[in-house]
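Narrative summary of target 7.
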Amino acid sequence: MTNEARYSRYTRTMLQLSKNLLSKSVLSLRTGTSIATIIGPIINPNNLKVEGFYCQDRFDKKQLVLLYQDIRDILPQGYVVNDHAVLAEADELIRLKDVIDLNFQILGKQVVTVGKQHVGKVSDYATETDTMYIQKIYVAQSILKSFTGGSLSVDRTQVNEITPKRIIINDLLKTAPATAAAVA
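Modeled conformation, tokenized:
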């Protein structure tokens, strides 16, 4: 395997923060130009998958949808698609109607444990670009907790339930005090 192929495979399977997924161009292979701009994700709360993106059409400024499966490649410049025909209006996407109607927004969502302990709010998330599954959720804790513990990274396997108002995660482990007596 050449270094170029190894690098290409590595960059495709990276985790990308939400800000790196948004405000990018949608690039057409057919015309070689930008045809739209990504403005927001469509997230399925049942499996934490980014099913697609809302985008603004460059030509008539309408809000359209780009489905994840229509993306051919992800470049630093934007998302590569075949042509403008892959962009669809939201009401045309029958299979995603329920997900689109939920209008699930993960940023700012409350995070609590199964034991009802308030952890904080979602400040960011990381998505695996090969599958578009959200792998990590970053939680901003209150000012008091951030002095003692900083921010918190929650893996998708720790998510127990997602409701319209909050994300419920498994209980956090308590850390042992660092003042344990040494045996002589």
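The longest strand covers residues 34-44.
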